[in-house]
Design goal:
Blueprint lengths: L5 H7 L3 H17 L14 H10 L20
Helix pairs in contact: 2-3
Catalytic activity: RNA(n) + a ribonucleoside 5'-triphosphate = RNA(n+1) + diphosphate
Protein name: DNA-directed RNA polymerase subunit omega
Function: Promotes RNA polymerase assembly. Latches the N- and C-terminal regions of the beta' subunit thereby facilitating its interaction with the beta and alpha subunits.
Length: 76
């Protein structure tokens, strides 16, 4: 069974793509700088799993940009 479960992750971040990109960036950061860990104990051994645990626990939240309708180009 996967930990953390996908429904727990999607309750924090609505987009699966955003979960994947945030987890990948955070995993690279955890790999490069071990002292940046936000949880005291992880279930996962790999950094991607640790990053997903941080997202599920609410320690990591992505900043989603605000989009205005004027930023989209319309074709007539």
């Amino acid at each position: 069974m996967l930990y953390p479960p996908l429904n727990q992750l999607t309750s924090k971040v609505k987009s699966k793509y955003l979960i994947a990109t945030v987890a990948a960036k955070r995993a690279r950061e955890l790999y490069d700088k071990k002292d940046t860990a936000l949880l005291e104990k992880y279930h996962s051994v790999k950094t991607v799993g640790e990053a997903l645990e941080e997202i599920a626990d609410g320690k990591i939240t992505p900043i989603e940009p605000e989009l205005n309708e004027s930023e989209f180009e319309t074709k007539d």
